[in-house]
Amino acid sequence: MDRIIEIKITKKSYLVLICLSAIFSCKNSKASIPDNNGGFFEKSTVADTITSTKKTSTLVQKSNIDKKWYGIYKTRLDYGKIGGMNVGWDLEININSDNITASGSGYQIGFKDEVTAMEEGNKLILKYKKNLDGYTLGENMNPEFILIKDNRNFYIQSEWIDSDIITKPDKNGFKISKEN
User: Fold this and answer.
1) Radius of gyration of the chain (CA)
2) What are the CA-CA distances from residue 140 to residues 93, 130, 131, 150, 157 (Å)?
3) Exposed, middle or buried by CB within 10 Å (0-12, 13-18, 19+), for 130?
4) Contact 133/112 with Cβ under 8 angstroms?
5) Pair type for strands 100-106 and 40-42
6) Do 122 and 113 form a contact (C-beta atoms < 8 A)?
7) Against a cut of 0.85, is the pTM above it?
8) Rounded distance, CA 32 to CA 15, Å?
9) What is the end-to-end Cα distance of the chain in Å, rounded?
């Protein structure tokens, strides 16, 4: 007796089979890209070269600022008494050879952003790069911060600092201390 086996294939099982065959058929395949001399590069080599180029350009951008700006900058911005308590927030900007971050924490505020820097005379213009934690309002500020050096003093300007702060700014902005 001949037996006839009937297999019922549903749409769902058909899609599963296609996906599995695609996964296993591509598992060990290598893509190649033609070079200018008639040969071929492996795709992974080209991707590694592109990644290396991106890393290099990032490092070049970071080294464009003078090392005099490297350090940790801190200030306290006070609102005065609210509900019988002294309230405000702390701003910290950390500049080193690897990255630049700005963070704020305190009364109704909390953020940590990575920023890029461009030096313009006695000013360091800090522009939003990406949010690392907290509020994302910095992405709408251009620039997010301006750090100003005047003789031995440093000042900060930013839209983060609102008009409710009881400490009033000097002509260059709010005073900020620098730790090396």
Assistant:
1) 28
2) 18, 11, 11, 27, 15
3) exposed
4) yes
5) unpaired
6) no
7) no
8) 29
9) 91
